[in-house]
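tool=predict chain=A
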Amino acid sequence: MDINIDKQYNISSSKFKMLSSTSGVGSVVTTKWGGFIMPLTINEWAFIRALTDSINNPANSQYTNKDHQDATGAEIVDDERFIKFLQAKKEFINLKCFAAIPHVGLNGANYIDYKDHPLYKEQELKSRELRPDMFYIPAVDFPKWFISSKSELKRIDEWFDLWKHEEFSKGGHKLRHNDGKEEFFAPPRDPHGPTYRTHKSQLNDPTIYRPLSPVSLVLICENGHTSDIDWYNYFCAYLDGKKKEMTSEDGFDLFGYSCDNHCSVKGKHSLKWIMNRNQSESWGTLKCEHCNKSVSLAGIMNLKVFCRGEKPWEPYQGQNWVPTHERCMNGHSRTVMQVAMVTSNSIYYASSQSSLYVPLSWTSQGGVKLQGDAYEYLEELKKKYSRKLRNNPELTKEDFIHSIGYLVNAAYEDDYTIDDNEALAITNEFLGISNEVDVVKTYRLEEFKVFVNNDKTPETDAKFEFNDINISEFRSKQLVDKFLKIKQVPMLAVTSTQLGFGRVKMPSPKLVNGQVVYNNEQIRPIYSGNINDVKVLPANQIYGEGLFFAFDSDTIKSWSDTYHLEDYYKTTLESGSMGEFLASEMEIYGRAKFYLLHTFSHLIMKELEFSCGYPTASLSERLYYSDEMCGVLIYTADGAEGSMGGLVWQGQPELIEKIIISALQRASDCSADPLCWENSDGLNKAACFSCAMVSETSCEQGNMGLDRRALVDPEFGYFKEFI
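tool=predict ok
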């Protein structure tokens, strides 16, 4: 059943959770009634569609983002620099804006209070009324198998059919459960599980029915697909002696299995899920109440099934709850799915992007100002490229722009007049930020330069403010020499969006010839259809405060060379391992530099927990690491707009000096020493949760690449004189 009504199954999900590492399109979200739902593709989100339609309307060709916002009632997130990055580096060439996810709660009757939302009231003043679906994320029930109070196991469509059509006698009358009305089936209700009566109802049957219990097991594959276990086919195959084949690593065609031996009593098995008294023994037993045959669920987690490429997050086809499919292969073989609990971490790994908001005018991108014919011709080039991509998906932007030839003449043939300087600006704008693919060397470098090259915010902006900390006031002159800059950041904004997701294992990039390469087969996009049709992406923008630290790269290189630390930190990892990408980056930009920077970031976060009361889970890091930069931004990331200023207050020279020295002294000892100090396996050296690791949500690198010894080792530590 589609969740496309304003009664939201007793769930009020934070807008910040909806684009998190565990929740988004294709994820499994736990509801308050104990069930599970799956958010649909963004193509089905009403506020995304409204903005897209407004952008596609030729009559609105001159609209600004503010105009589109006023016309639709959807809220737009301002981050032009981030838009340009996604256009250039993630192939969203037609992306125009971000749409903010509306945040609305539920009232006592479990209905969305959208009429109290500021956007609704704003449109109401203009004599417009926003539809309720503008204020929620559409979803479907998933998994779709449910168990009743009598242990009956059926698909949701079968339960709904009983709800609509099953009749029972009451007071001499034939009735249907709540008159068979769909809205009273939400969340999925047990027709045979009445609880109590309502006080007010015009229904012939005013009974309240308890929710059905969802089956908590699903199938997932490494290419991002997910399916329900077909329990009917599983029951029949088990009875037919196929238990060994179903657990073979080669895979079993469960979905294509023919149940020739249906129930000998009534044709089709009527299944019950019988739980063991001691549930630690197994998952229980499936039993047919007609023929009395049973199948043990012991070993169900070892089930191996051929994937049929199901995408439940995309619109369903027909009336039989059949999701969209696509061919799913692993090389030349069919992909084999594995069983997982819906609450398992392997169910969902988000592929997200975040950006520190920096006004475009403060960066090198701000120098390109295209107007008149130059701007219109750039838009024409984007449209031409988009059309050519439909027939030639492999066509790169570089090949396309080279095929045009002399741009001035090409523009003239299309009735546009531009000069050579405008032609160069158009080319640079069309190709993006840089010809480099490496995010760190391009995008974050601009942020780093804004911090380092300015003592304070270049101009007033409500969402970004920083100022220099006078480190010359430090009592320890040795500490002054260790840093290039330290800054207070009283106000910052971080924009986050989601581009796709994976399952089974986290989709990880690789560095190939200095370029970032992703295995796109393992990433499912959050949109349906062609990427060129994506004009709007959902986004959240959180506000907070932070502290910025910049190290001098030349000083660090000299330190590394003196103690031969590049060899000391050399690590060989297996291909496909979790830290392969990070190890490749360190190979290019310097291993010792990264261990120093990353560990320093974690130690400061842990120290701030003691000094200003922020738990490390509410802090995040943003690393600036390449051959041209070495720095870290530590900022509040608790999802609240604004902050109480505690983090910035610690940026006073006398306080931040104490924090740094205290963090270093605390790092010299760990409750797990000597084992922690002497550890040399993998990417982590002297680091554990007792000393240097933080919450996974706070760390950009999954707590990898940490070593206290890089900072405080008595022989080669960068800060050894402070211990």
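The two ends are 63 Å apart (CA to CA). The chain has 22 helices and 31 strands.
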